[in-house]
Amino acid sequence: MFPFIIIIFLCCFSSQSFLVAKIIEKNDLKDIQKYFDHLDQQSLVLWDVDYTLMISTDKILLPGNEVIYSELISSYLDQEPNQRWNELISQIFIHSPIQLVDSKLPKIISSLQAKGIPTLAFTAMKTGSFGLIQSMENWRINQLHQLGINFSQLFPQYDGLNWK
Prior knowledge:
Elements: E1 5-13, E2 18-26, H1 33-37, E3 43-48, E4 54-56, H2 66-79, H3 85-95, E5 98-100, H4 105-114, E6 119-122, H5 136-146
Parallel strand pairs: 3-6
Antiparallel strand pairs: 1-2, 1-3, 4-5
């Protein structure tokens, strides 16, 4: 299990006519449960996807292995034309299994949503097509769904939001 969980809270309390924001970094979800208990429908919970909600089980994609990853890709690109770069990286993404950072996350997120607390997730992943992946955003959403996490309830009137 990945040792760091970073959860970003943006708590908006309109009844007090000012905004309160907290960024909370903890190593275990049980350390932040007390914050969840005090949220209401005027709160907004923002989650980072990578290394907070989910993580690859492929060792090469874990933090700290960027040098090895870069060296492997560079050695491949020396042998293949650069146009195959996106195809190679997308193959790595497609075939790398993912797992929850903490098995309690889907229950916590659905519990917040059931209380009417707006809950969103953000990722630094690019959008659009990439190599063999037609839509990076849909691919990422499908990964979250496979892990039991669904953020679509916040905007039920939209089939999907697409921000470039």
